[in-house]
Amino acid sequence: MNRSENRFSLIKPIELCHSNVFDLIGNGWMLISAEHGGKANTMTASWGTLGFLWGRPVATIFVRPQRFTFSLLEKCQRFSLSFLPNELRDSMRICGSISGRDTDKFKAASLTCMHYGSVPYVGESDSVFICKKLYSDLISGDRFHSSEPLSNYKNCDYHKMYICEIEKILKRK
After folding, report:
1. In this structure, what DSSP letter does residue 98 have?
2. 136 band by pLDDT with thresholds 50, 70 and 90
3. Which of these, 115, 89, 105, lies nearest to 7 by C-alpha position?
4. Among 1, 119, 125, 157, which is most exposed with the fewest C-beta within 10 angstroms?
5. Using an 8 Å Cβ cutoff, are 15 and 129 in contact?
6. Which residues contact 139 (CB under 8 A, 6 or more apart)?
7. How far apart are CA 11 and CA 17, in angstroms?
8. Phi, psi of 66 (to 5 degrees)
């Protein structure tokens, strides 16, 4: 057991039923954290889904290829989704406004990089999902059934979608 696990208890995904998942991601945001070759990074995201697919609880995240976290996600099998209390909103803004290529975003945002096994996560989180990639694909502009969402892609910089099994959920005690 990692020393960081003392701050958290494991819960089952079904126990999230008391959370508003639309608010959790869309308004509350999340931090996606990945690591490869000893370099950990985190990024703010407000696009994602939670659900049940292929007989397991899943999260779907969307990351643009130009993001530094994208390069780490491509090289690792597991990553985390961290949900922070609203009072750390400024830290989440920092993680969404600077690049991790040349900056330690955890340090810049006054956040602690903890690990569950080899998976980095934000120690100040209220809850953390430890995720394993199951499927990924690039969004393609010619596959939209409505032109309305295309306004999010003025530069044709489409996201890559990752469908991931939620293997563990850590909940702050």
Report:
1. S
2. very high
3. 115
4. 1
5. no
6. 62, 158, 159, 160, 161
7. 12
8. -80, -10
